Amino acid sequence: MALNVIKMKKMKGEGVPLSMLTAYDYPSARLAEEAGVDLILVGDSLGNVVLGYDSTLPVTLDDMVYHTRSVARGAGNTFIVADMPFMTYHGGIDETLRGVRRLMQEGHAHAVKMEGGLEICDTVRAVVNAGVPVLAHIGLTPQSVHTIGGYRVQGKDPEDARRLMKEAKALEQAGAFGIVLELVTEEVAEAITRELGIPTIGIGAGRRCDGQVLVFHDVLQYASPYREKRFVKTYADIGGVIRDGLTRYVQEVKERAFPAEEHVFAADESVLDSLYGAAGEGANSK
Description:
The chain has helices at residues 5-14, 26-35, 46-49, 61-74, 93-105, 121-129, 158-174, 186-195, 216-219, 238-254, 269-276, 278-285, and strands at residues 18-22, 39-42, 79-83, 111-115, 134-139, 178-182, 200-203, 211-214. The protein is 43% helix and 13% strand. The chain folds into 2 domains: 5-219, TIM Barrel, CATH 3.20.20; 242-285, no CATH class. The model has no long low-confidence stretch (mean pLDDT 94). It is an alpha/beta fold. It has an 8-stranded parallel β-barrel, surrounded by 7 helices. Strand 1 (18-22), helix 2 (26-35) and strand 2 (39-42) form a beta-alpha-beta unit. Pathway: Cofactor biosynthesis; (R)-pantothenate biosynthesis; (R)-pantoate from 3-methyl-2-oxobutanoate: step 1/2. Homodecamer; pentamer of dimers.
């Protein structure tokens, strides 16, 4: 693993953007690493795109440990951040640290991500003091979707912009090594990026962040049906390719076109003799 939190901060200073992508299993992590992404996020978005939930809320710590461990096996040379799932870091610090320990020791993550603003600063500070890098996450925070009124763009009025700036600065002060800005107006995201000494990583937060993150399944349109999102650019439609391939497979099985001669293994006549006997084979041929 070549990248670390010190190098990320240096990249911000040099104006070198950070590329981040989610991954949830061994093959997606392997492909992401081969593509050269800087960071992999094992997001609790796996609830939506892998586990079939309507939100991230049902995702458990066991889910996150399992999927983070799979990603770590596939991307051994990439910096891996694991999401702390819903309500695993809002109780006592001992409970929080137990969850963090599991993601680091069992999941082999290099850092954890936490959603929230001022209310989690003490928790961020305690986790960082325990030796674990923390990536913060403000703006649209999916774990709080019911309290913020749905999936709405943040920073659209002066009061909200000031709130986001205050939260970002407090999280930096608490020791976060970077901050994800999700669905934040471009102007506010740019202002926060200028004010902070740590990298900002945007998703739906415009062009001025220090890096960008997208969901694996959005980049590759790997879903059925796929729902378009304004802030996403699709680089390949593998969902359509997979569907077409599976459809052809089913059709060929039904038509007995698969398996064909090149897919089978032939036995010697002696093997058939041992099964049926020469006399039996002759009788069956009449």
